[in-house]
Amino acid sequence: ALIDELIGTPKGITFSPDATHLLVTFSDANCIAIFGLHKKRHTIDRSPRQIIQGSKTEIFRPEDIKISPDGTYCVISNSSEHRLTLYPFDKKTNRITQNTPCGRLQNPESNLYFPHGLAFSKDGAFLLVTQFGHITVTEDGSIAWDIDLRADEAKVNIYRLLSCRSCNPIIK
User: What is the largest CA-CA distance in the chain?
Assistant: First the structure.
């Protein structure tokens, strides 16, 4: 079974633009993995065809992952760092083309606290991000929050994508 062989705990998942691959985040392993899909056999490859991992990736406790509507980049919510990272995506080869981010959205400009879910508007003009609020990640990777955590810290943030040329989105 594939579950016995996974890299860690899967969190976020999305299809490649042509629906032949899955991009999966693994929060406890601080990585993204891309798996091939076989529609006729109804199976997923047991081994990932690509893994993006390491400190240069700036992937820390990744939650969700989405590919832009034009298929040219993917965005990842990194909850423990209160930041989003973006990576160029080649929709012909279904690969992330560089291990370092080509863009990021981080505090103080982003006003993000433990970002979680992601969604693009159909036209790619907006990115929506859910956040939990001021949550602490313990040394063992668990999350903890104070009983005084205010409910209004959990919200949906909307960012307008002003430019996506050369995988350099400007998000505000």
Answer: 51
